[in-house]
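Hi W., the 3-thiaglutaryl-CoA complex you wanted:
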Amino acid sequence: MKPFESLDLFNLESEFSSEERMIRDSIREFVNAEVMPVIADHYDRGTFPSHLIPKMAELGVLGANLTGYDCAGLNATSYGLIMQELERADSGVRSFVSVQGALCMYPIWKYGTQAHKDKYLSLMARGQVIGCFGLTEPDFGSNPGGMITRASKVGQDYILNGSKLWITNGGICHLAIVWAKDDEGKIIGLIVDRDRPGFKVRDIEKKFSLKASVTSELIFEDCRVPVSQQLQVEGLKGPFSCLNQARYGIAWGAIGAAQACFDEALNYAKTRIQFDKPIAQFQLVQAKLANIATEITKAQWLTLRLGRLKEADKIQPYQVSMCKMNNVSMALNTARVCRDILGASGITFEYQVGRHLLNLESVNTYEGTEDIHRLVIGETITGFPAYR
Ligand code: TGC
Ligand code: FAD
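Structure:
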């Protein structure tokens, strides 16, 4: 198979520092050598390639943009490029890394006590402790503020009751960051170790999307969690500030998935002969390739700008929403068009486009659906929140 070639029609490459390029290339090499050869089979069997965790940890991708505690302390662009390369292989692999770093290590790093940081962060950076993030509930997805999971204080413990649904990494976690309402109805965050009595996990089987990722339900029945496990933040801004980090990574990751599909479709179109010539010579096929190449290029530049704003500490949540919404929607459309260019071959596991297409359906929904992000942008522009 022809090695992957990244699309770069506007010399984006010159915008990256040599360190950023080096980091991206090392992850690209890892993805080519160790993820691509196994990922389709894992997807087919519905298993997560957990044997990759130690290698990803060694490469510094877990909590890569955090400082201290064996984290790599990379800048936002380098972190984004890592997400892009990982999702070029599979959204499930990038999901694992997003959840571990942005949704579990970040809240401990940002809102944890010194004891929490000392206890968990190095082990998490080394991939020896895996986390999951429980915000969504069966009846509260886009509107997590309505959550019914309760943490009632009894002495020096919280008693946790409720359930969290669609939780990435649930079945393989050692701890869960759980968001619940306290006795006063305030949203609090707890670090819940997997071995607490009353904490059960049920994996969700038979998915058609993110099959190479573990998705689970977390169930808490009178689960006693010491008050000392509470994060130092109150209200929805706690989980939402974590989502800002993860959505930022998804914005980059989606470009990787789109690039993988584009590269595969372009190579296919150049070699697939119909009516005595390569289909790439037909104007309609060129129009499809030109349109998706243009959309990928627009997303690349918007997202690089997002990264530079993040590095300058000037990033706004609505900008993250715009990139998450635009890039995932762009990637989903790219995957669909590429699947079409591959004809019947596009429905097999021999090619990637079908797998990316199905994965991206989840990515378009999680971390805020496409329309929720549209509403965030709408609120920013008009000043009117239109969620209710
Ligand atoms: P609203 O009243 O607007 O805000 C409540 C409080 O939160 C603050 N806030 C934010 N803070 C930081 N960053 C943000 N992006 C924030 N957005 C809001 C806000 O200032 C306020 O603070 P305060 O101090 O005044 O209390 O909240 P709302 O209830 O009206 O909801 C707004 C809405 C719909 C945009 C929000 O609820 C939303 O984003 N919904 C989508 C839910 C979502 O994204 N869930 C994701 C679950 S995790 C996941 O999907 C992981 S997938 C992992 C993987 O595999 O990669
Ligand atoms: P709903 O909120 O019921 O939305 C259904 C439809 O209604 C959507 O089209 C939505 O856009 C629309 N809608 C809802 N409200 C409005 C409105 N106000 N205006 C207009 N349209 C609206 N959650 C976690 O907490 N942790 C995880 O690790 C995690 N991992 C996930 C992994 C996978 C594979 C998937 C699929 C989901 C995961 N989720 C996770 C859950 C995810 O965040 C939710 O699915 C998402 O927030 C949407 O919630 P919902 O599925 O309940 O859809």
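The mean pLDDT is 98.

W.
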